[in-house]
Design goal:
The chain has 324 residues and is an alpha/beta fold. It folds into two domains: 172 residues, 3-Layer(aba) Sandwich (D-Maltodextrin-Binding Protein, domain 2), CATH 3.40.190; 115 residues, D-Maltodextrin-Binding Protein, domain 2. The protein is built from eleven helices and eleven strands. The strands form two sheets. It has a six-stranded mixed beta sheet, with helices on both faces. A five-stranded mixed beta sheet has the order 7-6-8-5-9, with helices on both faces. Strand 1, helix 2 and strand 2 form a beta-alpha-beta unit. Helix 2 crosses helix 9, helix 4 packs parallel to helix 11 and helix 6 crosses helix 11. The longest helix is centred in the N-terminal third of the chain and has 22 residues.
Length: 324
């Protein structure tokens, strides 16, 4: 009869060998990537381009499965709670991961996620209409301090990324603004052009046409550095506000993913996200690609989750979806 300790060691070694063998064979069947939004949107199209390019780097195929609903939480939950074997991964976006858990009614938190690789970010900018009494970032902040809550700033929806972005910026700057939600970025921008709101928070691609037409002016970017599309617009840090924010998306997996499998996935995604032909296709789609490895992706998600929680609590929206 084997000694109990010897038997335990044998079991552990067997498990290690089995895991190593499985990783060596990975993937032996198609990998499913769950997109938590409907087909045809930016995230879905990005996922399909990624799936097209990953096969030679991963040594296997990837198929896209759309699972929309709940603002992205349904598909995200399905990916997080899948078997941790590398055959089901998800597109992890900022909203479902860093923001929705704070509103409640969600069966996961940012700590329940295996972050694999960040694919890209959608940058956040503040633009003002041509008749606003402030036409640069410093005068915007000065006016807001002198007139608390008077500046109206449009966003794409209550509790969404652009709403949290503006409220987070205001909190960091020590000012108060009147956030005005719309049913998407387009109506928010239109309202700003028409003078119905003083300013708007949106992405570069959403603002460029109105800026070129002279209807709006970008006065601030929520980045570490200025951006090439609007080189004259300073960062928040340049005007004394320590704040950065962008909407992002990448690949996530269930916790417990075997390390060799995760390493193979991350390595393949690293190569895809640096592939010149992939980058050209993404640029044609208007998508900004910025690869970040697992640890950096996780750090970004945790930072934004902490900011979102603070803002959501200040707005009195924390846990509002919890059934009582």
């Amino acid at each position: 009869m084997k000694h109990p300790v010897t038997a335990l060691i044998g079991l552990c070694l067997s498990a290690v060998v089995a895991t190593t063998a499985a990783a060596a064979d990975y993937p032996s069947r198609p990998v499913q990537v769950i997109v938590p939004y409907a087909a045809g949107g930016g995230t879905d199209l990005s996922a399909r381009v990624m799936a097209e390019f990953i096969e030679p780097y991963l040594g296997g195929t990837m198929v896209v499965r759309n699972m929309p609903g709940g603002g992205g939480s349904i598909g995200t939950s399905a990916a997080i709670h899948a078997a941790p074997d590398g055959y089901t991964v998800g597109f992890g976006a900022q909203g479902p991961l860093a923001m929705l858990p704070h509103y409640g009614g969600i069966d996961y938190a940012v700590g329940d996620i295996e972050f694999v690789a960040l694919m890209g970010r959608n940058l956040m900018l503040v633009a003002v209409n041509k008749s606003a009494p402030f036409q640069d970032a410093k005068s915007f902040l000065s006016y807001a301090k002198a007139n608390p809550g008077k500046i109206s700033v449009g966003n794409s929806g209550a509790g969404g990324a652009s709403h949290i972005a503006m409220e987070g910026l205001a909190m960091a700057a020590g000012i108060k603004v009147k956030s005005t939600p719309f049913g998407g970025s387009a109506p928010a921008i239109t309202a700003s052009v028409g003078g119905h709101v003083d300013a708007v928070v949106a992405h570069p691609s959403e603002l460029v046409n109105q800026v070129k037409a002279g209807n709006l002016k970008v006065i601030l970017v929520m980045e570490e550095q200025r951006i090439k599309q609007f080189p004259d617009a300073p960062t928040a840090k340049e005007v004394g506000v320590d704040f950065t924010w962008s909407a992002w998306k990448g690949i996530i997996a269930p916790k417990g993913l075997p390390a060799p499998v995760k390493a193979k996935l991350e390595g393949a995604l690293d190569k895809v996200f640096h592939d010149a032909k992939f980058l050209k296709k993404m640029d044609d789609l208007g998508e900004y690609v910025e690869y970040r490895a697992s640890a950096q992706y996780k750090a970004l998600a945790e930072k934004d989750s902490a900011i979102a929680e603070k803002v959501v609590r200040s707005l009195g929206m924390y846990g509002m979806n919890v059934q009582k």
